[in-house]
Structure formats: C-alpha cells, structure tokens
Amino acid sequence: MSESSFTKWVACWGNATSITDRNEAVYAKDLTLRYPIRVVFAGNKLRFHFSNLTGTEEVKITKAFVALKDKSDYAPVKITLGGNTELQIPAGKEITSDDIDFAVEAGQTIEVSMYFSDFTQMNAGTLVTGPLSKGQYAYGDFAGEKNFPDDLSRSTNLFYFLNTVDVFTEEKNHALVCYGDSITAQSWPDYLAQRAWDNGFHNVAIIRRAVCGTRILRQYECITYAAYGLKGETRFPIEMNVAGASAVIIQHGINDIIHPVGVETNKFRPWSDMPTAQDLKKGVEEFYIAHARKLGIKVWSGTLLPIYGWRTYAPFRDEVRNEFNEWLRTSKNFDGCVDFDKAVRNPQRPEAFADGFDSGDHLHPSENAYKAMAEAVPEELLE
Fold first, then answer.
1. Minimal CA–CA distance to 374: which of 221, 240, 224, 201?
2. What is the separation, in whole angstroms, between the first and last Cα of the chain?
C-alpha cells in the first residue's frame, strides 16, 4: 500500500478518563505500565493522547515507548512531546504527543509502555474489562524491554493516563464511539470490535468512552464515590475528541435511576437526585445530541437494560426506565436506536434479564449477554 493513500488521522483505540477509586494509596513510584492495542487498519504514523483530566497534580511520564508486540526484533520507538522524551501532563489537562513515524498493518498489536520514576499521583484512569482490554504493570523500569519479569509484574484492568491512540490512515477508515457507564466499561465494545473484524469490517475502530457509576445529570463530590466520574455535561465534550469519528452509540442513564435512596439511607444519595424520564431526555438532548451535531457525527441511542432484582429496584424506577427507553427507541432526534434492552431481556418478563444473561447482580449482563449486545449493533454503523 502506497503511503500516499494515507490521508487522515483516525482513532484506533480509546478509553475514557475518570477519577480512579480513592483507596489508601494514591501515589506510585518506579512503576512501568504497558497496554496492548490492536490496530485495525494500516497507517504510517501514530500519535498518542495522554490525559490527566481528573488529576490535581502534574504527572511526569519519565519515558514512553511504542513497539510492535510479538516481533522477534522487538524495537521500541520513543514517544515524544515537543521533541522531549519526558512527557509532562498538567493537572486537569490532556496532551497529544508528537507524530511518530511508525508503520502498522491491519490486525497488528502494538504495545504502549510508560515509566514513572518519581512519585506520581495515580488519579486519572478508568477500569475496563473485556477480551481485548488487559494491561500489565511492573515494579521498576522495564518500558524498553520486550518482557516484564514475572516476579515483579501483574496484569491490570486499570488504564491510567493513556487515553487515545490515533493512526494516520486511509480516507475510508472511521471510528465508532461507545459512550456510557459500567455496562459499556465491560465487555460488549470488545465483542463488537471482534465481531467487526471477524466479519470483514476492517475500516472501523471501536472507541470506548465509559466510566463505571457515571450519571448523565449529576456527579459525586466525595471520595467515597469520586470514581463514579464526571457528569455527562462535563464528560461528553471532552470524550468526543475522537479523530475520524462517524457515529456515537449512547447507552447511559441507568445510574441516574438506581442511585437515589434518600439521605436517611445514604447521605450522598438524596431523593432530590432522582430524575424523571423528562429530565433524562432533556439531559441527552442538551448535553449529548446537541454537541454531537456540532461535530457532524451521527447519534444512535442505546436502550437501558433490565434492573429487576437489583438492590434498589422498585417499580417506580422501572417506570422511569421504560418511559425513557420508549423515547430512545422512537425519538426523531436520533439517527437510529440499538435496542440493547430487547436483546437481553426475558420476553415473558421484560423487567428481568433472559435466562443466562444476568451476571448475578441483576444489573450487569453476563458475558453471553454482552455478546448479544454486540450482535444487536446494526451493520450500517460498522460499514
């Protein structure tokens, strides 16, 4: 393929950035992080977006590399910022690296490695799962090494600082954004990426923008629930910074419905947070649809899944969910609807998951249900 056919930047991988869970230890030192990323289309340059959006202190990446995984001649290439090998990310900001000359072929896996020599506030990251989403960390400086030592390393599903990877590629290629909460932070976007690849849709990258616990209308201002993330009005414009995006699937809102329980039960979850379906519609229209239209991308709704049996389930909550879902299915404000609810619910008891589709907590789907969600996405979004 001639390099002259490469004409534009397209995101080939991405996650959201949120506040990581506030545990006892919030700093790391002498740490290497490594994340594998499958590149679904060919290109001749890469660039990397790093985020310290939710950090309150500057983060210094001592050095960072990109390399092709599983090559016998493992050859890490330095990632730079303004020509510097140390990447500094100001508190509350995101940065984009220099363009890196780096040829990739469709289907190859690259590894991005970052080393932090000094004390680093680990406050900007997100937890994701799925067959394509697993990183590694090691104590010590192994960013330029092919393998981490077994006795100093472990796997991780926490993705810190690395936010998006772009490839300079062909005009035909595009990105599909999956936006949501913990359900989207779990497996269905990975299964969608696998489905697209296996079915010959090699011109689309699946970009995940999901934060566990996040809500459309509100956010928590306490360390107990800080990891539940920023509210939609704040999140969406930042997270839709996706090169080559053609469309977004929005599957969001269930936490707005299930969280409020009253201050007598939980001081951080007052009944005043409980939305009506109209409140949710207004939030989606004002925060999501309006911004996506400014970007010129298509907006697909994703219906909310069953919640029968969840610890705060009540019929009045399901009434809000059903009314909101009906709007998501029928509103002309969207370019289409992915009916995730229909794909996983019990036809005889639609307030509950179908047999085998409940993870056990009555809120999050099973792995088979996540596969069904991926299958529910119409091919026209992948083409």
1. 201
2. 21
